[in-house]
Amino acid sequence: MIRHIVMFSAKRPEDVETIHQGLKLLQGIPAAQRLEVSHNQKTDQLGNEIDVVVYGEFADDKALADFKAHDLYQQSIGIVRPLRELRVAADYEVP
């Protein structure tokens, strides 16, 4: 299984909800076994720069590639990219 985690910060605080809604489009893509889009609770004592987190689980690399090739993925990028300041992604395999 591949875990896919992506964290976003907004350029402007008023854009956080638009980013959140744009990323929720990803939940319509069937390639993920599990996909969550959530606001960061911002309770960490050292850093709270991240506004929205995407957490996904995929059967394998092909499923993740299929997810990224889906039309809704491109639509989400079109909404989110102009509004985000930071995007940090990590993919790792779980045995």
Residue windows where pLDDT falls under 50 for at least 5 positions: none
Head-to-tail CA distance between termini: 7 Å
Largest beta sheet, briefly?
A: 4 strands, antiparallel
For the CA atoms, what is the radius of gyration? Answer: 13 Å
Provide an overview of this structure.
The chain has 95 residues and is an alpha+beta fold. The chain has a single domain (2-93), classed as Alpha-Beta Plaits, CATH 3.30.70. It is built from 3 helices and 4 strands; from the N terminus they run βαββααβ. α1 packs antiparallel against α3. The N and C termini lie close together (7 Å).
List keywords for this structure.
3 helices, 95 residues, 4-stranded antiparallel sheet, Alpha-Beta Plaits, alpha+beta, globular
Concise account of the structure shown:
Helices cover 29% and strands 34% of the residues.
Per-chain topology:
Elements: E1 2-10, H1 16-24, E2 34-39, E3 52-58, H2 61-69, H3 71-80, E4 84-93
Antiparallel strand pairs: 1-3, 1-4, 2-3
